[in-house]
Amino acid sequence: MKILVTGGAGYIGSHTVHELLKQGYETVILDNFSSGKRELVPGGEVIEGDLRDLAFLESIFRAHEFQGVIHFAALTQVGESYTDPQKYYGHNVTTSLNLLHAILKANVKLFIFSSSAAVYGIPSRIPIPESHPLSPMNPYGWTKFFVEKILLDYERAYGLKFVSLRYFNAAGADPEGRFGEMHEPETHLIPNILLFLLGKKEDFNIFGNNYSTPDGTAIRDYIHVTDLAKAHVSALQKLPAFKKSEFINLGTNKGYSVMEVVRKVEHVTGQKVSFHMKPKRKGDVDVLLASNRKAKKLIEWELIYSDLDTIIETAWNWHSKTAQHA
After folding, report:
1. Fold classified for 2-170+223-250
2. 140, 154, 167, 256: which is the annotated catalytic residue?
């Protein structure tokens, strides 16, 4: 099978391309490299271009016979989506509509969408099941919400089959150290701690110590990026047998507080983490945990690398290596 991976030079995209190649898929990466990194591309054909260019997009589908598409390409900074919502709606929703237009025209029937736990908003149940009401708290979350609604209409009207994967906190790096996280700016907790320890950041801040949690810091669900990548490939493999399209959470059903992550980093690295305590950020909730029962059942998802030790060890190896070459 030949698979198009949009945003395949990004953090999760590059790991997924690696898994596809390992399993014998022919892959074509489409990326505009606004945030993707050429050094993260693990192989396959690479096409540089923008999903907002519909004519360009249609030409790619004429040149290739794709059996499926995995759609990662999107803007992902929650804070920026607050300050510049036009950029996020204009980019994330428009690019998805263009891609779906090209998919229908080329009669591609399998679509995997990179969604987010941000569609849920403030959880009323923990762990969060897929049936939880959807009420995003920021424009980024709403862009994912709107694309999911569009996908439902496209399934009903055109027969497009899809799986929308809603995931929580991607973390870690390739266990063999080939790819990892290279965000600019970096907003994720674990790499920010590690980059601070490596002298690549001036300070490290914790936002809020008055949450309704045992130690007062927010609790989140961390999933190793390789386990996420494997889930995308499994979803692609299982989708043809599904009677209908599906929304599936990807999480561990287990959470760690910010302070627990800090202490684990200290254990793994042998270094003391100093930090500044800052006020809560707007929209941050006490606890976010995903129910993964559906993922285990429908796509036979197994968590291999998602224990916190392995997540931090692989991330530390990656950031230590890349810091030396920076």
Report:
1. Rossmann fold (3.40.50)
2. 140
